[in-house]
């Protein structure tokens, strides 16, 4: 009989506890591509002229970039860490790299944006992550590969390794590293396994994502090399389902999601997902994921002149205000979906508490939770701090005294304090399509009979 997805069985080392405590990170896709307002891959997607793009990128000078303002906004919005694009597929480097002059430090801005980002975010108390793309659309050797162009490939590979090591050497502690764009190479071409070892020497506490490519030489690393959804055996410390919220049962995971639609950097004329949609993704990540829950890495594409778009700030701050009140249901939560609760919203847990995150507020004074097997000690409407009445009979909990009007525009939360870690009975653990179908038959038979007639009686 299948019930809920089995809990993850691995344990999280102390040095990575911050990641599960955080739950919520900010992805920042920013570079010279923002000028075009058609996404971070505009160079390739529109098959632009490389030299003209390089001219525009080199002239790019975002004068309104204020990393402290970014960090302050991120902190208020409830993000606990961030991940910044140091170099996307266009090859333009956002730091002072010793290995190229195609960078913000050597071209128009004459600034090391990576350093400024790291210092400001760290000062605001956030953990820092770096995004780095394997792909560099400027380098033919990257695409020709080691067979066709061994010399060019050796140089390209050395360049990549040097840059990654440079990023992990010159900027103090880096908490999170997000490789991307491994196509069309694999882990053996790229020397991912060797590079990973060197990265760990430089940064013993770092968490490295899974986009490191497939390895034939290192058995067991059956990489997808791409979005990394599901229980894959790829290299890396955490899975990165992209535009998806999928549990990785073998390791930590972080779903990366846009606030808009598909593209990651600033887009002109974009439409924005509403705040409750974004918050629901965060809650879903926290709810899914068995023992350790999942994280949401929510994206922002700052404008070419260096600002977070107001549409983003408005939504992020609304979620931040919600987290100020309801954060205990998210940060450090232990996953949820304890009982079947889809008719009302989502659930998370933390220690002995069960959090009911209500999507549908129907105005009735009572809420009935079927199948909670753990004894309840107290119930609080977290949104207002109000203590709620309750009655528990067998495995049925009826909460009383709910206000008619929803107490908040975003999801209200009820905290159910239990005597031990909350658990459902067997029936409650099963979802619609799971479990013993005879249990369903018995439920129907016992309560109304067996026939198609209204009264269930056979004629
Ligand atoms: C995809 C996109 C890339 C983006 C990344 C974020 O790989 O191709 O542009 O940076 O997702 O996860």
UniProtKB/TrEMBL annotation:
InterPro entries: FUC_metazoa-typ, GH, Glyco_hydro_29, Glyco_hydro_29_N, Glyco_hydro_b. It is an enzyme of class 3 (hydrolase). GO terms for molecular function: alpha-L-fucosidase activity. The record marks 256 as: May be important for catalysis. GO terms for biological process: fucose metabolic process; glycoside catabolic process. Its EC number is 3.2.1.51. Residues 17-328 form the Glycoside hydrolase family 29 N-terminal domain. This is alpha-L-fucosidase.
């Amino acid at each position: 009989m299948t019930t809920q997805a089995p809990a993850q069985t691995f344990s999280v080392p102390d040095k990575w506890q911050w990641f599960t405590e955080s739950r919520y990170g900010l992805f920042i896709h920013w570079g010279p591509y923002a000028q075009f307002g058609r996404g971070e891959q505009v160079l390739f997607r529109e098959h632009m002229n490389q030299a003209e793009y390089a001219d525009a990128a080199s002239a790019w000078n975002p004068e309104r970039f204020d990393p402290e303002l970014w960090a302050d906004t991120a902190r208020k919005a409830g993000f606990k860490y961030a991940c910044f694009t140091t170099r996307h597929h266009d090859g333009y480097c956002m730091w002072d790299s010793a290995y190229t002059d195609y960078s913000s430090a050597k071209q128009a801005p004459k600034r090391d944006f990576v350093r400024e980002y790291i210092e400001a975010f760290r000062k605001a108390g956030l953990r820092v992550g770096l995004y780095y793309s394997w792909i560099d659309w400027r380098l033919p050797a990257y695409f020709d590969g080691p067979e066709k162009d061994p010399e060019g490939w050796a140089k390209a590979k050395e360049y990549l390794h040097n840059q990654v090591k440079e990023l992990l050497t010159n900027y103090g502690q880096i908490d999170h590293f997000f490789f991307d764009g491994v196509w069309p190479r694999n882990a053996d071409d790229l020397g991912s396994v060797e590079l990973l070892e060197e990265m760990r020497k430089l940064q013993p506490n770092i968490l490295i994502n899974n986009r490191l490519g497939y390895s034939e030489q290192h058995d067991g690393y059956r990489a997808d090399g791409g979005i990394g959804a599901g229980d894959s055996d790829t290299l890396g410390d955490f899975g990165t389902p992209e535009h998806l919220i999928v549990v990785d049962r073998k390791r930590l995971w972080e779903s990366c999601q846009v606030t808009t639609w598909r593209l990651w950097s600033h887009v002109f004329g974009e439409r924005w997902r509403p705040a409750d949609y974004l918050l629901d993704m965060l809650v879903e990540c926290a709810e899914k994921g068995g023992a350790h829950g999942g994280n949401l890495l929510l994206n922002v594409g700052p404008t070419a002149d260096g600002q977070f778009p107001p549409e983003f700030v408005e939504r992020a701050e609304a979620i931040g205000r919600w987290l100020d009140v309801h954060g205990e249901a998210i940060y450090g939560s232990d996953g949820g979906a304890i009982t079947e609760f889809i008719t009302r919203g989502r659930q998370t847990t933390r220690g002995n508490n069960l959090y009911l995150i209500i999507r549908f507020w129907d105005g009735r004074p009572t809420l009935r939770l079927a199948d909670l097997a753990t004894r309840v000690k107290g119930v609080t409407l977290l949104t207002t701090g109000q203590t709620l009445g309750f009655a528990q009979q067998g495995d049925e909990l009826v909460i009383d005294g709910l206000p008619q009007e929803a107490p908040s525009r975003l999801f209200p939360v009820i905290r159910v304090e239990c005597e031990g870690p909350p658990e459902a009975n067997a029936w409650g653990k099963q979802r619609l399509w799971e479990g013993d179908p005879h249990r369903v038959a018995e439920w129907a038979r016992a309560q109304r009979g067996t026939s198609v007639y209204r009264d269930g009686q056979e004629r």
